[in-house]
Amino acid sequence: MAAASARSTPRISVLIPVRNGGDYVDAAIASMRRQTYRDLEIVVVDDGSSDRTAALLARHAAEDGRIRVLSAAGAGIVDALNQALAEARGDLVARMDADDLSHPDRLARQVAEMDARPDLVLLGAGAVAIDARGRIGAPVTVEADPARLVELLRVENPFLHPTVVMRRLAVEAAGGYRRQFALAEDYDLWTRMALQGVVANIPDALLGLRRHPGQSSRRHRMEQRAVHALARLLAYGRPVDMPSLSALPTPLAAVTAYLSAMGSPGPEFSQNERRDIEKMLRWCVAAGTLSVERRREIAAALRGGSTFLSALSLEWRLRLAR
């Protein structure tokens, strides 16, 4: 394919972080290059890859002037995303992971929807699961009603991160991605984006969402659930006088600080709040970041009002902790 000339101000910037994505990134970038919507740039952050990723990205960049490849030191996806966001020139930014496949008309449909609805700040889409070999699996459905989405945000993440298109100024006004919520950085951002304007989904499948054993969400399930719980409680729960997030270097430090600063989760806490506290406690118990006294204090508080088995199991683990 002949090299394409890049516009100085593309309409949309596609942000793709990658680390050791040699098995899939070639197909992912190719799917973006085949978009029917042409006024775009592809900002790829190579976050310390040690495989053939760099060579694959260099070939694509040489063939297509819309591709910019940035280097990062391997600090993680949040820093890589913020680096890409800082370099983005479009007034819209799109996300895609380096192992997924965008349908050819994905961006055309999303840009048209954003143009038709100036109040939209965040627009996701449905997807279809694909396996490591690209074989198509089950559809991944999403809620399409904006009012329902706002309610769902209080209990779960109703957006597929690799499908979203966002207004760059709204992302910046919300504060961008936060390192303290790595593994749930998207959900944390959505809770703040919803304060900037309307959020919505296109229900149709516009992405092939790769499922494979090497994904971080599969390897760090307990940690991810704990960080999701923290984001939810900070966005929608009762206020907690904890240290500033900017002073907390890691998600585990943020989860520990919240549990250390919160009051006793007595019967007046909702069942959802108590479940979120349990999710965070499980990580802190495994990591040993709470004092024995604080563990037992929370265990005693959890005893009142919660009847589900997970709470009873965790209570005894906390009470027997040394």
Descriptive report:
The chain folds into two domains: 12-214, Alpha-Beta Complex (Spore Coat Polysaccharide Biosynthesis Protein SpsA, Chain A); 220-320, no CATH class. It is globular. Strands 1, 2, 3, 4, 5, 6, 7, 8 and 9 form a nine-stranded mixed beta sheet that branches. It has 322 residues and is an alpha/beta fold. Helices cover 42% and strands 18% of the residues. Helix 12 (292-302) packs antiparallel against helix 13. Residues 1-7 have low confidence and may be disordered. The protein is built from 13 helices and nine strands. The chain has helices at 25-33, 53-63, 77-87, 106-116, 146-152, 168-174, 185-193, 216-219, 221-236, 251-261, 271-287, 292-302, 309-320, and strands at 12-18, 40-47, 67-72, 92-95, 101-102, 120-130, 136-140, 165-167, 198-210.
What labels would you give this structure?
alpha/beta; 322 residues; disordered N terminus; 2 domains; 18% strand; Spore Coat Polysaccharide Biosynthesis Protein SpsA, Chain A
